[in-house]
Design goal:
Arginase, Chain A, binds zinc ion, 10 helices, alpha/beta, 8-stranded parallel sheet, two-stranded antiparallel ribbon
Length: 400
């Protein structure tokens, strides 16, 4: 397959969601960094594969497809008041937020129409989407995590009317909003690679969160320990690739966050380089007719370096931003393997996704060994109890 074109959907209105008086990590500066990343590819001669498309403006109403009526109506009311307002300690709205969201809605529609024609796109927009659930704050998250309306879920919802869809979330945080919205949808696969939720916002996305009702078994959570290197992330990608090769989506919607990149920000401990992002782009574009990427997180270097590496992967080009492979500690591997095993058990248990025979049989063998060991330990315990007798100390020679 030859190199692929990617449409970059952008508009300056994405900058109008902002705070003037306080510095907030989710600010228009992120767009400067992301565009710097895109432009670095143009200056390297990849401009002919990247088409800059002005994000059109369209009404917010389509977001009703993925949000609760009461939540949507009250948010619109707040947006129309054109005030600065904190919805929770993380999430703000400002006088220009409405303009940004109208462009996000337009960009989502444009991305869908391009995807249907087989053209991949990347929405370089704000505010981000994946923490915005059906009623705003999703699952057990303490806040909305900078997100107001979920464009990722909206695009997946609309595309699912035209063909088979998979959502893949590579942001370092779990896409709890997207999971919340798609949880009972059996026709939309959602794979999410994220850092251990026992120590990171939004504290959800454990392997046993696999969907409910018809959706049971179509939500896959892959957990990586803090400070995981490329090795662990590349292993996780292999699993993603196996799942996608079974699911055979026509369209993939990506929650494209770049905050897993090492040193991206002070809020998370990460150690992933450009290799992971490049390979992610490459695998995703090889597994679908078209890929729609929505910018989620990424607050610093991730946008300047990991974003262009991901784009090169999507376009089927070599990683020009080569970096040495980072390795994870043994402790990180141990934790990752334990989590991965749970993810695979969950997949096998629900039976909606068939993994390659060698993965399934390895896990089943380990499971058998686990139970055999457990049974062995139980027998030993029982033998001890028999020796001890009912009262603990057991009858003495003198008693008998
Ligand atoms: Zn994030």
């Amino acid at each position: 397959m030859g190199p692929l074109r990617v449409a970059i959907l952008y508009h300056d209105d994405f900058r109008s969601h902002k705070l003037d008086s306080i510095s907030h990590p989710e600010s228009p500066r992120r767009l400067d960094l992301a565009l710097e990343g895109v432009n670095s590819l143009v200056s390297q001669g990849f401009g002919r594969l990247l088409t800059l498309v002005k994000a059109p403006r369209s009404p917010l109403d389509s977001f009703r497809l993925v949000h609760d009526k009461q939540y949507f109506d009250s948010l619109v009311e707040v947006l129309k008041s054109r005030r600065v307002l904190w919805l929770d300690p993380d999430t703000y709205v400002s006088p220009g937020t409405l303009e940004a969201l109208l462009r996000l809605s337009g960009a989502s529609h444009k991305a869908v129409s391009l995807a249907l024609k087989g053209v991949s796109s990347f929405i370089v927009g704000r505010p981000p989407s994946h923490h915005a659930g059906f009623k705003g704050k999703a699952l057990k998250a303490p806040t909305r995590g900078f997100c107001l309306l979920n464009a990722t879920a909206l695009i997946a919802e609309v595309l699912s009317r035209h063909g088979r869809v998979a959502v893949v979330d590579i942001d370092v945080h779990h896409g709890n909003g997207t999971q919340d919205i798609l949880y009972s949808r059996g026709d939309v696969l959602h794979i999410d690679i994220h850092q251990d939720p026992s120590s990171l916002y939004p504290y959800t996305g454990f392997p046993d969160e696999a969907g409910e009702g018809e959706g049971a078994g179509t939500k896959v959570n892959i957990v990586t320990p803090p400070a995981s290197g490329d090795d662990i992330y590349l292993d996780a990608l292999k699993l993603v690739d196996h799942i996608l090769s079974f699911w055979k989506p026509e369209y993939i919607v990506v929650s494209a966050g770049f905050d897993a990149y090492r040193g991206d920000n002070d809020m998370t401990v990460t150690n992933v380089g450009t290799r992971f992002f490049h390979l992610a782009g490459k695998i995703l574009s090889s597994r679908a007719k078209s890929v729609v990427s929505v910018l989620e997180g990424g607050y610093g270097e991730g946008l300047r370096k990991a974003l262009p590496a991901y784009l090169l992967g999507l376009m089927g080009k070599k990683n020009k931003l080569w970096e040495p492979k980072t390795r994870s500690s043994r402790g990180a591997w141990r934790l990752y393997r334990a989590y991965k095993k749970l993810t695979i058990y969950t997949i096998i248990k629900h039976g909606k996704i068939q993994l390659p025979e060698e993965i399934e049989s390895k896990i089943k063998r380990e499971e058998r060994l686990f139970w055999l060991k457990k049974m062995g330990a139980e027998k030993k315990r029982r033998r001890k109890r028999l020796k001890k007798g009912w009262w603990g100390s057991g009858p003495t020679e003198a008693d008998t």
